Amino acid sequence: MNIQLRERPDQAACATTRTAIADCDVHPSRATPTELYPYLAKRWHTHLETVGAGPYHGMMIGPPFPKGQPNASRRDAYPPEGGPQGSSLSFMQKQHLDPNNVALGVLNPLGTGQGLRNPELATAVCAAINDWQVEKWTSKDSRLKASVVVANEDGPTAAREIRKRANDKNFVQVLLLSRNTEPLGQRRYWPVYEAAEEAGLPIGIHAFGYGGNPITASGWPSYYIEEMVGHSQCQQAVLASLVLEGVFEQFPKLKAVMIEAGFGWAPSLMWRLDRVWQRLRDEVPHLTRPPSAYIREQVWWTTQPMEDPERRDHLFEVIDWIGWDRLLFATDYPHWDFDDPSRVLPAGVSVQNRDAFYLGNALKLYGLAKD
Amino acid sequence: MTEPIAGGVDCDLHPAVPHLTSLLPYLNDYWRDQVTTRGMTDLVSQAYPLNSPISARPDWRPAQGKPGSRLEDMRAHALDPFKVSHGICNPLYGVQMVFSEDMATAFCRALNDWLAREWLDREPRLRGSIVIPVQNVEKAVAEIERCAQDERFVQVLMLVMGDMPLGKRAYWPIYAAAERLDLPIGVHAGSAYHHPPTSVGWGSYHIEDYVAQAQAFQQQLTSLIVEGVFARYPKLKMVMLESGFTWLPPFLWRLTKFWRGLRMETPWVDRAPLEIVQSNIRFSLQPVDAPDDPATLNRLFDHMQSDELLLFSTDYPHWQFEGDKALPDGLSDHLVRRIMIDNPHATYTRLKQSAVKETTP
């Protein structure tokens, strides 16, 4: 679906006519397996080459469910100088940032120290990825901003990494993945939220990751499509956990961004949470408001992969129920299910909502709006 | 409020087994002895703790014993006030949690016989679901074939959270038997608790488990559709019970989008997910996870793009609505008739057969 069949007109030439956008989910990758070595102690080079990274799944090479395309990425996104898709800043600029007039690109590195069983390795790789994001990407293109990648299973250590980067303007959020050893509302993760709130950094919770739990409540499914669709159920469970455990009650200034897990499910989940809470609120007395009240104040959603109903009025109604001020446009570049900013939003949206959707909401959330 | 019409079908009623000893008359000597010698007391799933507000409406809760354990109460609270012609019994007894397939088989057999003797024999409006030992597919098929001879059994019952996703090929003999015998597969909220009840691990609270049922239904629909169950068994109907349904449209948008992008992985899925749902999947009405205002609810019905998907249910004795408001406000007369009568009869074809049989002396 993204094999380039014919030469396109010069994309950069169109850029000036395009509205500026924020892309709240950009995936930078490493050109070679050893690209992080300069940021890692020698001990970890040997470790990685001897026993590997040690994730919560069995594959030494590649993911448990083979992706639909190499590196789950666009076939037209291989940089001319070699390396996997998303590994070259100059090609990312040429193929994506310039032609699509990206004013803000939020980097969410995957395949890092998150979801590794060895906690010390996890910490070392996360710190290395953060240094690498600044040196290779954000220091070279001011449109790009980094996410503080943290060792997700080790709350206190993750909190230290957040505090270390708190005043560094290269970073605009803290990155977690949705799938961990426990639901993200659990107390073991609270040091992350405490440090993020203190630093004024939103928590970006990106779909994916491995925590050892099957991706359905009935065990492992068979297909990659089940994993991909299943990420939205994981995200619903994560959000329910954050609300019901009282994370938003405890950290009222914390902001959470649901990344790459869809948003269409949000109204139904909020209705269900509120309805059940009316019955069972005695079990969760730490909640002082209906569950949806926390979500409406403290949660945002990125748009890709964009909900795509047959009828656009259905899409607009769902967004009305969530709020046009809650959605953050994202492309997921360079992944195969990339959303093209020029096609993603059907006609019929007011200028004000359109601007908020593509840029305004993100600038405001990430503290980059010019007053 | 929206008035129910007479002659409807209540597709989700929960008669409760008072105690494991209630099943003793239906167990053979060996299993009777096992139950008593080993001090087994009861099989209550924490999906529905007996005293949880979810498990019984306050005015439906008996002074003594389990909610839903008395036929007289079910008549007075559900069958009579909603003037139904039929009510389908879905026993939620914790047999799916049992790890031994032999024990599960014995208990399921006893449970089904108990339902026939203590409920179906005593109340002609009631119909039953066959509870199966999913722990062993061969024995599950045998139990379906045994019970299906009694036309009052109109459905096979499974839980939404089991050992494997429901689309897995290992389960297909169950679906083959169900299709052959005109039995829909009812998939009810609840878990065997053999895996964490969310796909991101164990939560802390009962409320979290209950909310998570909706996500489990979504995962099962994905599995059933992409594994090709309905390509292989096109006449098979599956009914999602106590699933909620307002999540369905956005779920299908996402599934359809990925199906378009990844069709090469499951090429036997030759119809769009929405089409498959419209021909093979149904949902019980309660709970209605939506705001009270009729305008929003009617938009949701429009998003569902079909008036054939919902089947009337009270979910008795679970607490889903107040008073006699089993039907949410704002339903058109047309939709009420669809939900209460047309859709259940189109789904449960055995209702007609057994009704004929009853009137024949």
Short recap of the structure:
The complex is a heterodimer of chains A (371) and B (361). Helices cover 37% and strands 11% of the residues of chain A.
Major beta sheet, strand line-up of chain B: 1-2-3-4-5-6-7-8
Largest sheet of chain B: 8 strands, parallel
Low-confidence stretches of chain A: 12-16
Structural class of chain A: alpha/beta
The arrangement of helices and strands of chain B along the chain is EHHEHEHEHEHHEHHEHEHH
For the record, give the distance between the C-alpha atoms at the N and C termini of chain A, rounded to a whole number.
41 Å
What amount of the residues of chain B lies in strands?
5-15%
Give a structural overview:
- The complex is a heterodimer of chains A (371) and B (361).
- Chain A contains 12 helices and 8 strands.
- An 8-stranded parallel beta sheet of chain A has the order 1-2-3-4-5-6-7-8.
- Helices cover 37% and strands 11% of the residues of chain A.
- Chain A is an alpha/beta fold and 371 residues long.
- Chain A has one domain: Metal-dependent hydrolases (TIM Barrel).
- In chain A, helix 4 (119-138) links the parallel strand 2 and strand 3.
- Chain A has helices at residues 11-14, 42-50, 89-97, 119-138, 155-165, 190-199, 224-245, 247-250, 266-280, 291-298, 312-322, 351-365, and strands at residues 21-26, 102-107, 144-149, 171-177, 203-206, 256-259, 299-302, 327-328.
- Chain B has an 8-stranded parallel beta sheet with strand order 1-2-3-4-5-6-7-8.
- Chain B has helices at 29-37, 71-79, 101-120, 137-148, 172-180, 206-227, 229-232, 248-262, 273-280, 294-304, 333-347, 350-359; strands spanning 8-13, 84-89, 126-131, 153-161, 185-191, 238-241, 281-284, 310-311.
- Chain B has one domain: Metal-dependent hydrolases (TIM Barrel).
- Chain B is globular and about 55 Å long.
- In chain B, strand 7, helix 10 and strand 8 form a beta-alpha-beta unit.
- Chain B has 361 residues and is of the alpha/beta class.
- Mean pLDDT of chain B is 96; it is low at 355-361.
- In chain B, helix 3 (101-120) packs parallel to helix 4 (137-148) and helix 4 runs parallel beside helix 5.
- The N and C termini of chain B lie far apart (40 Å).
- At the A-B interface, helix 7, helix 9 and helix 11 of A face helix 6, helix 8 and helix 10 of B.
